[in-house]
User: Fold this.
Amino acid sequence: MDTFHDYPKASLLEKFRQDTYAAIEEKISLNPVLQSFQEVVWKYDINRELIDAFLDSMEMDLYFNRYQDSLYQQYIYGSAEVVGLMCLKVFCEGDAERYESLKASARSLGSAFQKINFLRDMKSDFAERGRVYFPGVDFNNFTNEDKVRIEKDIKADFDHAYEGIIRLPEGARFGVYLAYMYYINLFKKIKHATAARVKQERIRVKDSRKMYLLFSSAVKNRLNLL
Assistant:
């Protein structure tokens, strides 16, 4: 939604949506990405509602640049929470009981990741696309109080997500935990920054820190210290 500016985005997205549905229904596509996707959909029984919600959220970026309460929740669900749910379907490998028990935590993790992305990319979202995702937030008057309120919401998502991470199947746990630790570290950096700084720059985790997180997370996972 943030590229192809000289082309009819709405019609291109609709064509992609129909191509996606066709790939799933026909169980084949000449598009290698859609071919791989339809294989995963069928192998892991990924619900059509999750796919619809994701595509609907992408479409929202064509028409909205302010996301008040209901739109915000819808966007978070479709752009992030359903990604967590689709991944969970793969991780659980057909274990329906485990999937149901971990759904809420998977949604919380996706939600936390997306909200941190919104904070990290606040400057570019507003300057380049005129978007502000957080309800009730005025970019030009973004305050430390606004930032703290958002951070409390993210912290609650992370706390709930961690409860699910430690109960993931062993084969999936390390990768998810590593992503969680990366975002926790990014979250800490954002928390230590002022609202003015968040508006001015894209805060990042250094590559050296990423390498440390990789090795430390691997050790913790191997020793069952999560």
